[in-house]
Structures are given as structure tokens and as C-alpha cells.
Design goal:
This protein has 354 residues and is of the alpha/beta class. The chain is built from 11 helices and 12 strands.
């Protein structure tokens, strides 16, 4: 069973071998490190850039316009905020050129809390990403989705932002989340594709015989069936929401449906509507700051379209509106949703009488 970071690495390998990826680049992305999270170890087209996020995004745009197919990395999304104007250019080029110019690039960046990264390595980027028109935005919650969504992003003719929840990068796949073609023995997979410690000058990966898997961009999945409350979430909060829902079901008989959006834009409105019409109660959960949050947009649209079908006021559980996330465990946990808080919000919604 692969971890998410191994799944990303295998998808990039398939991309450069079969799907036309020409350049995989970013800060420390090339040898010997292969990225701070090791996502690019052993890749043939990976190379290092200066510590310059604006240069990385600008280079990706130029390569894409020149007919190449780049996958660029911003080492942490905290440092993508100084590239907003360039992200807008990448997003509006197809529109402003009347359809004459596509910008087929993938921008990868780790997001969110969960690794004690403190104020410079714990930001979320989902709300900002969805406010940048012209981009497709995806965020996986498990290794299989990471693999399939990244392959779909690579072949898409539009710019795609691939947000990687860093707290899940070392989490292994569960049964049913296998990547087609990977060995079943996770130790064997690690021996094949994880670079050894120390001298790597002669190391080469032994890639498994991977099959292509394309998870459609814009298609959500029902991560857990339920009848009493709908949870709309993505990334790190999916497994936490499932765990909270399982506990509620055992303890109180409350059945919560967890919708893993997978794509933040274009999101799966039909799946959202179908679930909310079944449960009539909705909770949006994500880590980004609660003010001007992506979940607020979903709630606004649900209220406009399904107001008379809601049995309770829609609820948002999101990151606290604080300048940054502290290093100490208690400060980080108080800044972003945790399982117990998600469980409490689910219970309150389920018990609300219409």
C-alpha cells in the first residue's frame, strides 16, 4: 500500500514516461533531495530552481506557452501568496486570448497544518485558489485519489492546482485505495522507489508496472453513506470526518454522510445537492480561515437553491481567524478543526429540530 507521497511520485513517473511531462521543477525538487517531502525522488525530468516562487510560476507559464508540459512545485503554499498576480495571468490567458492559447501546467504545493510547521509552513490555500479564475483546483484525501487526480491534472489542457495535504503525505492507503500496478507489499514498494539515506549518486528507482488511472476532475465521492447530516469536506478533514461519523454512529445512532469533494473547482454541485436533499442538514469542514472561506460560498449557494429543504441552519467549521498557526501542539490544534470538534458539530446539526 503506497503512501500519498509515493502515489504522487508514481503519478509523476507515469507522467514523464507516457503523458508528455517535460519538466518537473521547484526548490530542491531535483537530485539529490527530491523535494522536502521526497515526492520527486528518482524522476528523470526533475530539476532544481532558485528560491524564487515567482520565478517558478513564471517559468511554468513560459514553458506551457512554448509547447512543453511542466509540473512546478511551490515548496509550501505559504510562499505562493507572492505569486497571485502570476497565477491570475496563467488563469486568464485562455480567456483573454479568445481561446488561442492554453496554459497546460500543473502547480503542486503542500497545504494545511498537522506537522507542527508553525506560522510559515501551516497555511491553507484553498480559498485563495478558488478565488483565482481559470484554474482547476484539486485536493486528494488518500493515495489512490492523489494518483488518479494528478494524472488527470497532467493531461488537462488548463492550468491545474494540485493541493497536497501535508498531514496526509505519509499516511498509507487503506484497503480499496490501491494504486493499479503497485506491489501489495509496502516494504517492497519502499525498497523499489524510496531513495536510501546517505549517498544517492548511484541509486536508481525500480518503478513498478503501473497502470494509468484517471479520476475525473470535478467529480466528488461519497466517502461515507449517511442519512442525518451531510459533511462537505476535502483533504485532511475527510479521514477525520469519517472517524467522527463512525464514533457518532456507534454511540448515538447518528448516521453522517461524508462527501469528499476532491475537486474544489469545478466542484460537483450535483453530488452536493443530492446528498443535502437526502439529509437536509449540512456541515462544511476545512482548515482555511473562517472569514471569506470556500465553505461559506457553498453554504451561500445551498441557501439560495435549497433553503426550504434545510432542517437546520448550515454550519461551517473552519480554521480560526488568527494571523498564524502556533508551533505548540495546543495552539495548532486550537487553530484548525479536530475530530472532537467535528463530532460535536455533527451532533448539534443532527439534533436540531426543524
Amino acid at each position: 500500500m503506497a503512501t500519498m507521497v509515493q502515489a504522487i511520485r508514481m503519478a509523476l513517473h507515469v507522467g514523464e514516461e507516457r503523458l508528455g511531462v517535460t519538466d518537473i521543477f521547484g526548490e530542491d525538487v531535483g537530485p539529490p533531495l527530491g523535494g522536502v517531502f521526497t515526492a520527486t525522488q528518482g524522476l528523470k525530468t526533475a530539476w532544481n530552481t532558485p528560491l524564487d516562487e515567482r520565478g517558478i510560476v513564471g517559468m511554468a507559464i513560459g514553458l506551457a506557452l512554448a509547447g512543453r508540459r511542466p509540473v512546478a512545485e511551490i515548496q509550501f503554499c505559504d510562499y505562493a501568496f507572492n505569486t497571485i498576480d502570476l497565477l491570475k495571468i496563467a488563469g486568464n490567458t485562455y480567456w483573454s486570448s479568445g481561446g488561442d492559447w492554453n496554459v497546460p501546467l500543473v502547480l503542486r504545493t503542500p497545504v494545511g497544518a498537522g506537522i507542527r510547521g508553525s506560522i510559515y509552513h501551516s497555511h491553507s490555500f484553498d480559498a485563495q485558489a478558488t478565488r483565482t479564475p481559470g484554474w482547476k483546483i484539486v485536493m486528494p484525501s488518500n493515495p489512490r485519489d492523489a494518483y488518479g487526480l494528478l494524472l488527470s491534472a497532467i493531461v488537462d489542457p488548463n492550468p491545474v492546482m494540485f493541493l497536497e495535504p501535508k498531514a496526509l503525505l505519509r499516511v498509507k492507503a487503506r484497503p480499496g485505495e490501491e494504486i493499479p500496478g503497485e506491489p501489495k507489499d509496502d516494504k517492497l514498494l519502499s525498497k523499489m522507489i524510496d531513495a536510501p539515506l546517505g549517498d544517492r549518486s548511484k541509486w536508481k528507482p525500480q518503478w513498478p508496472d503501473l497502470e494509468e488511472l484517471y479520476i475525473p476532475i470535478g467529480k466528488a465521492r461519497i466517502a461515507r453513506e449517511g442519512r442525518d447530516v451531510t459533511v462537505l469536506t476535502y483533504g485532511r478533514n475527510v479521514p477525520m470526518s469519517i472517524a467522527a461519523a463512525d464514533e457518532l454512529a456507534r454511540e448515538e445512532g447518528i448516521e453522517v454522510e461524508v462527501v469528499d469533494l476532491r475537486t474544489l473547482y469545478p466542484y460537483d454541485w450535483d453530488a452536493i445537492v443530492e446528498s443535502v436533499r437526502k439529509t437536509h442538514r449540512v456541515l462544511c469542514v476545512n482548515e482555511d480561515t473562517e472569514v471569506t472561506n470556500f465553505g461559506e460560498h457553498l453554504i451561500r449557494r445551498l441557501v439560495e437553491h435549497l433553503f426550504y429543504e434545510l432542517y437546520a441552519p448550515p454550519k461551517l467549521l473552519a480554521g480560526a481567524n488568527v494571523p498564524g498557526i502556533g508551533l505548540a501542539d495546543n495552539l495548532e490544534q486550537a487553530s484548525v478543526p479536530q475530530k472532537d470538534g467535528i463530532k460535536k458539530a455533527m451532533r448539534e446539526l443532527a439534533r436540531h429540530e426543524p
